[in-house]
Write a structure and sequence with these properties.
With 291 residues, the chain is α+β, with helices and mostly antiparallel strands. The protein has a single domain, classed as Clam (outer membrane lipoprotein receptor (LolB), chain A), CATH 2.50.20.20. The chain contains eight helices and eleven strands. Strand 1 and strand 2 form a beta hairpin. Helix 7 runs antiparallel to helix 8. The longest helix has 27 residues. The relative contact order is 0.16.
Amino acid sequence: MAERQQRMGVPPARARSGAWGRVGAVLAAGLVVCACATGCSGSGAAAEDARAAADPVRTLRQSADALLEAGSSQARTSMEMAAGGTRVTIRGEGVYDFRRQLGRLTVVLPPDPTGAAEHRPITELLAPGALFMKNRGAGVPADKWVRVDTATLSDGNLVTGGATDPYAAAEVLRGTRTATYVGRTEVAGVTVRHYRGTADLALAARSASASGEAALKAAAKGFATADVPFDAYLDDQGRIRKLRQGFAFVNGRREGTVAVFSTTLLYAFGTPVTVTLPRTRDIYAGRIAEK
């Protein structure tokens, strides 16, 4: 039987098992390759990284649109500045609706030098063209809101409220002039792509939404420089997860400029957001005392 099989070209059983083993190995390897082509993220991530490095300016300019698609999120903010040799940090936390450009933040001011709280937390409502503040102090009754037209502020409300409006911060990136792709990292457990660059406020204003244009134009004129250095961290959907921006304004009391660093963290996209703006009778119309 064995001789007949040999004459017919059929390999012996042991040889057949080895050959089929090799064929099986080849098939298994092919299945692994196919599985990776459809389910593995390594090659896909590499391709995405290559695209991210190819045109970072365009990617950053489109990041505000990605937030519009996301709809809403929760937000944390911090604002740092050096005052009298001491670094002061103001923190905020709340929610934001990117499509309606409405948000609510609770802003906590730093304690005084003795460690005691100088001020109750301020509630801020962010709206197109306006900022509403409660517990503002400075002679404002506790049950009243202060309304500020953001287009009248020399900084466009990028720093005045102690927290940068999350969508305004994103729209600054519409003015990105130069940027480099730094690489992948993590923000709050989420894999993100890190970019570093400089945006121009005047350019951002020309590409901004109708409500953001006036504020960014004011900021471009009011700051010591229209250039805004930044570090931006975007997720795989192109949404901003973390954005750190540097602003410089003229020190009115002394020569030179003051640097302010604003950081915005966005997470829990799709969070329901309900913001009710104050009624006219609840808005303080009197004079606000200077601090």
